[in-house]
Design goal:
binds zinc ion, 3-stranded antiparallel β-sheet, alpha+beta, about 230 residues, elongated, TBP-like, 2 domains, 5-stranded antiparallel β-sheet
């Protein structure tokens, strides 16, 4: 895979800046939170269409606001911190999800946007819990590469005496459905598991050997080889 020049450095820079901003917000709004639970260590693939897109993101970090700080104070403090750090800030009253009970509860969401990054801070009106979400833009890091269908493991010239080329893969050895990738292109999701091998990658009949011993063929399998009589 060919690197896209500078893309990984840029995404890493955005990931570090996002983390630093989240740490500042968490320490200020919910002091004493366990920052070891803030996972932002490696970008994940979030779009499997070519070229694949990578993103740093948190999975809903939460902390507790101090007892003497009201929800409204937390919201304005979050907005002020983001604004002073150059984030474009919006506040919505759409309610706060998360926790055991489904559905939104009364609360506010502070949304910050900067350099394609997004931070959301959800402050519940009636509970002390504060949720933090952050993500960088989803970026392509590698040039898409045309898949090279593998060379067959066996051909009519290299098949072992006493064997025939596998009728399923015709000597390929790899799964004939996906060429050994374990996945195939999918319009909607970008990629999906190969329905022929279910990610085994090798041909299910010859298990990768690409050839079958004539003496072990079942009557059904012999039907694929009329030349055997
Ligand atoms: Zn095969
Ligand atoms: Zn396959």
């Amino acid at each position: 895979m060919g690197d896209m020049p500078g893309a990984r450095e840029e995404l890493d820079r955005l990931g570090r800046a996002l983390r630093a901003q989240l740490v500042e917000l968490i320490n200020d709004l919910t002091p004493g939170s366990d920052l070891r639970l803030l996972f932002l260590d490696a970008p994940r693939i979030v779009d499997w269409h070519e070229p694949l897109r990578y993103q740093y993101s948190t999975s809903s970090f939460n902390g507790e606001r101090p007892a003497h700080v009201s929800a409204a104070e937390s919201v304005s403090r979050a907005a002020a911190l983001l604004g002073s750090a150059g984030w474009e800030v919006a506040i919505s009253q759409e309610g706060v999800g998360g926790g055991a009970r489904p559905g939104p509860r009364p609360g506010s969401v502070v949304i910050g946007r900067r350099d394609g990054c997004r931070i959301e801070i959800r402050v519940s009106d009636h509970r002390s819990i504060v949720y933090f979400d952050g993500r960088t833009p989803a970026m392509a890091l590698y040039e898409p590469e045309e898949f090279q269908w593998p060379e067959p493991a066996r051909t009519a010239e290299t098949v072992t005496p006493g064997y025939v080329l596998c009728y399923e893969c015709d000597g390929l050895g790899w799964c004939p459905g996906c060429g050994g990738r374990g996945w195939v292109y999918d319009k909607v999701r970008g990629r999906k598991n190969c329905s022929v091998c279910h990610r085994d990658r090798v041909c299910l009949i010859c298990r990768g050997a690409a050839q079958l011993a004539i003496s072990l063929l079942s009557p059904y399998q012999r039907g694929y080889y009329p030349e055997l009589g």
